[in-house]
Amino acid sequence: QVQLQESGPGLVKLSETLSLTCTVSGGSVSSGSHYWSWIRQPPGKGLEWIGYAFYSGSANYNPSLKSRVTISVDTSKNQFSLRLTSVTAADTAVYYCARLWRYGYFDYWGQGTLVTVSS
Amino acid sequence: DIQMTQSPSSLSASVGDGVTITCRASQSISSDLNWYQQKPGQAPRLLIYAASSLQSGVPPRFSGSGSGTDFTLTITSLQPEDFATYYCQQSYSTPYTFGQGTKLEIK
To answer: Nearest CA to B1 among A105, A95, A40, A49?
Structure first.
């Protein structure tokens, strides 16, 4: 059974960089059939796709965040990471990592981690 | 970006009832539509992919249909564990986008 677990600071200061890691167990980030994705959900609101990365290094980001986001895959640690720069209060959300099938659906999700941007 | 609109935003039903949730895309997305269930404090769970394919482990009382711009999620014989928020998501093109959610509450 594939499991994903997010880790990282729950509090980030205004204008600084949010960094999260997702550790994958029960499966390999080097799978050629899957992409590795981040999705976020502001408190009480809906879901927003942030982007995905492939083990080869290619990535695809939501244009609304593209200038600030980097997603990377570390095959040696079976992990992938999210980096979001210059955060504002609007970036406060629960951040989920998820496995994305190449057909476009998210079949395994982490439990989510709340990141609060503070001044 | 492709906009996804769900209706209704909320609905009330009783255990044993059947319900239908609708999702409309702002342009044709073929059958590239997925449905998720989310309970409070939990991650979303994939129910249906490619408009009508049931994800492994999901009870057959859940079903999906549609193509083009209009899609439905139908739940027959509601069980207590089905009261949750449901989201549709298009996978036709990036950026992937989700509907705003439909909250299913117990009457």
So the answer is: A49
Query: Which pLDDT score, from 0 to 100, does residue A4 have?
Result: 98
Q: Considering chain B, what is the average pLDDT of its residues?
A: 97
Does A7 lie at the interface with B, CB-CB under 8 angstroms?
no
Bridge partners for B70 per DSSP: B24, B67
Q: Is A82 helix (H, G, I), strand (E, B) or coil?
A: strand
What's the average model confidence in pLDDT over A6-34?
Answer: 96
Q: Is the pLDDT of residue B104 over 90?
A: yes
Which of A47, A48, A101 is opposite residue B44, by nearest beta carbon? A47
Chain A: residue whose CA lies nearest to B96: A49
Q: How confident is the model at residue B7 (pLDDT cuts 50, 70, 90)?
A: very high
Nearest Cα to Cα of residue B64 among B99, B80, B88: B88
Q: Are the C-beta atoms of residues B41 and A96 closer than 8 Å to each other?
A: no
Burial of A118 (0-12, 13-18, 19+ CB in 10 A): exposed
Q: % helix / strand / coil in chain B, to the nearest 5?
A: 5, 50, 50
